[in-house]
């Protein structure tokens, strides 16, 4: 009798479809669990943004004050602001930390390419580790215009 079962290929006919169903259900459950977990950890996290002053600058050396704020406009102290090239070019990445007033002073020297009349400098923020702040979304950019 074992000899006939060994040659019987009908036993595996339903196996592939059962595996596919189990895989689909498992992936769906994993997706729901990951969504729930990521939602839990962001309940008390606040997104930050920057407010550059001035909002528009020319090419060449200049000072820019960047204020780190939460969505309600409250200033965030102890954050590190990182300025990098966007469509305008910086010689190097520039960083500064915000003081108690939530402001950081950056010395920037943006330049524009040939036939380029304007560009941007981008900012990212590394909030202080003790706060419940995060910088996941893009921030306000500094507009750089060609000096006339």
TrEMBL record:
Listed transmembrane segments = 20-40
In this chain, composition skew of type Polar residues spans: 108-118
Task: Write down the species.
Answer: Haloarcula saliterrae
Please list the residue ranges annotated as the DUF7382 domain: 43-106
* Protein's name in the database: Carboxypeptidase regulatory-like domain-containing protein
Q: Does the keyword Cell division apply?
A: no
Which Gene3D superfamilies does UniProt cross-reference here? Answer: Immunoglobulins (2.60.40.10)
- Which keywords belong to this entry? Membrane, Transmembrane, Transmembrane helix
Alphabetized Pfam families for the sequence: DUF7382
Tell me the domain of life.
Archaea
Q: Does the keyword Electron transport apply?
A: no
Q: Where is this region: Disordered?
A: 92-118
């Amino acid at each position: 009798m074992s000899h006939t079962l060994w040659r019987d290929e009908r036993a595996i006919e339903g196996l592939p479809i059962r595996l596919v169903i189990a895989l689909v259900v498992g992936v769906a459950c994993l997706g729901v669990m990951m969504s729930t977990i990521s939602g839990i950890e962001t309940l008390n996290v606040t997104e930050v943004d920057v407010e550059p002053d001035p909002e528009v600058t020319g090419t060449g050396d200049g000072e820019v004050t960047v204020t780190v704020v939460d969505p309600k406009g409250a200033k965030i102290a102890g954050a590190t602001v990182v300025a990098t090239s966007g469509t305008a070019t910086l010689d190097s990445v520039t960083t500064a930390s915000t003081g108690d007033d939530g402001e950081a002073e950056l010395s920037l020297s943006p330049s524009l390419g040939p036939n380029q009349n304007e560009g941007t400098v981008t900012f990212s923020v590394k909030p202080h580790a003790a706060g419940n702040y995060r910088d996941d979304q893009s921030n306000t950019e500094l507009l750089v215009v060609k000096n006339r």
